[in-house]
UniProtKB/TrEMBL annotation, chain A:
<dbReference type="InterPro" id="IPR003658">
    <property type="entry name" value="Anti-sigma_ant"/>
</dbReference>
<feature type="domain" description="STAS">
    <location>
        <begin position="3"/>
        <end position="113"/>
    </location>
</feature>
<comment type="similarity">
    <text>Belongs to the anti-sigma-factor antagonist family.</text>
</comment>
<dbReference type="Pfam" id="PF01740">
    <property type="entry name" value="STAS"/>
</dbReference>
<dbReference type="InterPro" id="IPR036513">
    <property type="entry name" value="STAS_dom_sf"/>
</dbReference>
<dbReference type="InterPro" id="IPR002645">
    <property type="entry name" value="STAS_dom"/>
</dbReference>
<protein>
    <recommendedName>
        <fullName>Anti-sigma factor antagonist</fullName>
    </recommendedName>
</protein>
<dbReference type="GO" id="GO:0043856">
    <property type="term" value="F:anti-sigma factor antagonist activity"/>
</dbReference>
UniProtKB/TrEMBL annotation, chain B:
<protein>
    <submittedName>
        <fullName>Serine-protein kinase RsbW</fullName>
    </submittedName>
</protein>
<keyword id="KW-0808">Transferase</keyword>
<keyword id="KW-0723">Serine/threonine-protein kinase</keyword>
<keyword id="KW-0175">Coiled coil</keyword>
<dbReference type="InterPro" id="IPR003594">
    <property type="entry name" value="HATPase_dom"/>
</dbReference>
<feature type="domain" description="Histidine kinase/HSP90-like ATPase">
    <location>
        <begin position="51"/>
        <end position="174"/>
    </location>
</feature>
<dbReference type="GO" id="GO:0004674">
    <property type="term" value="F:protein serine/threonine kinase activity"/>
</dbReference>
<dbReference type="InterPro" id="IPR050267">
    <property type="entry name" value="Anti-sigma-factor_SerPK"/>
</dbReference>
<dbReference type="InterPro" id="IPR036890">
    <property type="entry name" value="HATPase_C_sf"/>
</dbReference>
């Protein structure tokens, strides 16, 4: 299953709801384009909801990192929400769990952004 | 050997993977004609030669997943094995062969009873694993790439690199439990 994306706004934060796989050549490109599109439209507070992402490979991990650094370099914030166990474990073994700001609750995540 | 063939059901596995996405594998050395049960002497291993494409990556991943499931590996381990094999195939297609349509990857799958052994080979310039930067080093944490081999090593029990002429062959080994070895 390829990646499906949809965006919504909550209290000035853009939530990107992702569903499916983030892998080389499939979801990774879609994620990159979506984040670039949001930035081009001035959305710099981005919450990636990964609750329905069932698979990420190393390219997908790299894309998450690239999204994080791209947003941060433009003065914004990118956070992760609702990690599945598989994604959580991947971020832990790659030591990225401490790099990302990871949230389990949407309201808490929204409130945590610097506005 | 026959018992091993029955356990793996390699002929069915080969048929399954060859027919994926209605695009047959370029070669399935041990499955011609497609779907026919293999001879006993051929049953312990299957090998594919595939084009350098993402479709091939998906096929190799799914074959590994099927192999691990048939070996009775528990679900989380199936996922890890399939991901490791996917990463090896991505390396072969992307970094090894650079999507060159003139180059192929070969993938072989074997259940010895005590081990799952998967070999992925490309026709690239060759990879020296000792030159790869450590993705866990603080200065590399925010790199957008370079985690594939690390994940392979994390998920498999043994990983061996062999330089070919040309190319690189990765051998990924997952030890099966004693209960499997005794079967």
């Amino acid at each position: 299953m390829s990646l499906k994306l949809s965006t919504r706004q909550v209290d000035g934060i853009t939530i990107l709801d992702l569903s499916g796989r983030i892998t080389l050549g499939e979801g990774s490109v879609q994620l990159r384009d979506a984040v670039r599109d949001l930035l081009s439209k001035g959305s710099k507070h981005i919450l990636l909801n990964l609750g329905d992402v069932n698979y990420i490979d190393s390219s997908g991990i790299g894309e998450l990192v690239s999204a994080y650094t791209t947003v941060r370099n433009q003065g914004g914030e990118l956070k992760l929400l609702n990690l599945t166990k598989k994604v959580h474990d991947l971020l832990q073994i790659t030591k990225l769990y401490t790099v990302f700001d990871v949230k389990d609750d949407e309201a808490t995540a929204i409130a945590s952004f610097t506005k | 050997m026959f018992e091993l063939a029955a356990k793996l059901d390699i002929a069915a596995l080969c048929k399954h993977t060859s027919g994926m996405r209605n695009k047959p594998a370029r070669l399935c050395f041990m499955a011609a004609p497609e779907g026919q049960r293999l001879k006993e002497s051929q049953a312990s291993r299957i090998t594919y030669t595939l084009e350098s494409s993402l479709d091939s990556v998906n096929r190799v991943e799914q074959t590994a997943e099927e192999l691990a499931k048939k070996a009775g590996v528990e679900e989380d381990e199936v996922y890890r094995i399939a991901m490791a094999v996917r990463e090896a195939a991505v390396n072969a297609v992307l970094h090894g062969n650079s999507y060159d349509p003139q180059k192929h990857i070969t993938a072989s799958f074997e259940n010895t009873g005590s081990d799952l052994i998967i070999r992925i080979a490309d026709q690239g310039v060759g990879l020296d694993p000792d030159t790869l930067p450590d993705p866990l080093a603080p200065e590399n944490l925010l790199r957008g790439s370079g985690r594939g081999i690390f994940l392979i090593r994390s998920f498999m029990d043994e990983v061996h690199f062999k330089l070919l002429n040309p190319g690189t062959e990765l051998t990924l080994i997952k030890h099966l439990g004693a209960e499997h070895a005794a079967e």
